[in-house]
Amino acid sequence: MISHFAENGLVQVDSWVLSALDRVGQRSREDIDACHPPDAEGDPPSAADTSDNLRGNQIMTHPRLDLGQHSGRNYDKGRPFLWQALWHATSHLLFQKWWFPRRYRPALLRAFGARVDNDVVIRQDVRIHWPWRLTIDGPAWIGHGAWILNLVDVVIGRDVCVSQEAFLCTGSHDRNDVAFEHANEPIHVEPGAWVCARSVLLPGTTVGHHAIVAAGAVVAGTVAPFAVVRPQATSRDIPTAALSAPDPRRPSLHRPVGEP
Mean pLDDT in runs of 10 for the chain (260 residues)? Predict the structure, then answer.
């Protein structure tokens, strides 16, 4: 009798283990299916599926993305290779250093083709990708650690403050292109605007005059003049609150906290 119960018990245990393994296997198959769309392997997607993909309805990039085909055909760097190399060396060895006098930074940028006024204050650790694609009207402030990735033109108006570690990015890629070629767009920051610390301006952004991009915000598109973009979401997702124009008869306010 003992052996009979033992055998029945083992059978019950074996059945429970097999059932549990089946459930784990089913769950694993579901996880795999969730991570890999049905078209990820096997037959290529149909024309209709590809059309939906290209409209962004199913996946982010082209279904036949091949980075090996990338040629950079949409990106003209604007200067010969040796000129590019000379700027990168100068930037890392002189321009970004804390000991390099700030009054010489505008002149150094102009030597490489930038249009930067003498009364532009540029702090240490500022990275500028290509000076010949940069225009800054003074007076203006570029704070410590700001990064201007200007694969195409970046234009900054007078009385603009770009605070610490802000990122102005003109570079992007065409997600619908098989070769993921560049899709760069310029950035314009109009006079009197404030791009606060660690905020991000994406390609094609225009920040209207006297607008504020708050610390940590991400902006894509156009920010209206006298508006504020806060960091809860991108500028496409939240309304920009219009502010009343400043009264020119009022005395100047204290310097902003984000002063470089």
Answer: 45 48 44 36 44 53 86 89 97 97 97 97 97 97 97 97 97 85 92 98 97 96 96 54 42 41
- On whether both 6 and 105 belong to a single domain, the answer is no
Which among 115, 206, 201, 130 has a CA at the least distance from the CA of 162? 201
Q: Report residue 63 as tokens.
A: 């279904």
Range of the domain at 115: 81-242
**Using CA atoms, how far apart are residues 238 and 229, in angstroms rounded to an integer?**
8
pLDDT at 70: 86
The total number of structural domains that make up the chain: 2
**Structure tokens belonging to residue 52:** 């939906």
Measuring CA to CA, how many Å separate 225 from each of 179, 222, 245?
Answer: 37, 9, 9
Q: Where are the beta strands (DSSP E) in 37-87?
A: none
- What tokens were used for 57? 């309805």
User: Which residues, 6+ apart, have CB-to-CB distance to 234 below 8 Å?
Assistant: 217, 218, 219, 220
